[in-house]
Each structure stands twice: as C-alpha cells, then as structure tokens.
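Subject: Sanity check before I submit

Could someone independently write out the structure tokens for this chain? I want to compare against mine line by line before I put it in a report. The sequence has 167 residues.
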Amino acid sequence: MEGAIPAKESAMAIVNTLARYLKQHDIHFDVLPHAETSDARLAAQAAHVSARQVAKAVLLEDRHGFLMAVLPAGQQVNLVNLGAQLGRHLWLAKETETAQLFQDCVPGAIPPAGAAYGLETVYDNRLLQEADIYFEGGSHTDLVHISGRQFKRLIDMTKQSHYCHVG
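---
Independent answer below. Compare away.
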C-alpha cells in the first residue's frame, strides 16, 4: 500500500496497548499517516479511504458496565435499536470515563479493539463486507490498516464480541 509504514516500523505510531494486542494475536498491519483530524469520518477523507471501511469505536455503558460499539465511520450508534438487540438500556459513556479507560489514547481516537482493554465489544456486521479495514490507533494522525479477513479473525478470537446492526 502506497504511503503505508511497514508493521515493523509502525509500533510507535499506534498506542502500546493496541500494538501488543495485535502482535499477540498475529495480526499483520500497517499504518497510514494522514493530516490531523478530529474524528474517524474526517480521518477517512484525509487518508483517501471510504468511510465505510473505517471502523470507529464508541464507548457505551449501562448498569452492567461498559460496552464498546464498533461501526463504520459514516454511521451513528442507534442506542435504542442496539439496546433492544442486546436486551440492555445503553447510553454514551462520559468523556472522562472514556479518557480513564483509554489513558494511552488521544481523546476521541480509541481503537476498535475492546478486548485489548478488557471490554465487551459489539461489531456492526457491515464491516465484515469490506476487503480492507482502517481504524484509529490512538491518535488523530494515523490509521491502522488490516485486511478484512484479519479483522474478522480478530473479532472471532474475542470471547466477548457480538455481531449486530449497530447504526
């Protein structure tokens, strides 16, 4: 991929928690640097990739604890529908709670690898249709790139993950 940093050189471009998790699960990745942005949708534009290929993570909570929802960057979490699918009453986590859980990440750039942080995670099944997946690796200046096959493998290895229609 043009402009990508080989995985061997990219460990410093993403947060250590994510780098360790990907290495532990033998997930091959590279990093696509881009101009600084404020969210995953804008990162897709800056990196010249489709927003439907960019997986964004949103931290939710309920009385049972936290839940990470992962969906395409151009979509929004439908809390009512997702809650109904899971039998839970969900709301968005506070920014202070998100910052506390993801201390190694820039605010708003949490990676969609909830298991790396001990979080139950739901994945929007539309992401499984993509040949390549990109996501923020803890900063607003780089996207991590993995194949769609590697992304599915990463999800399937996670004990606390589910597929659903998040947006």
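---
OP: Matches mine. For the report I'm noting this point. The beta strands are 30-33, 55-62, 65-72, 91-92, 120-124, 132-136, 142-147, 161-164.
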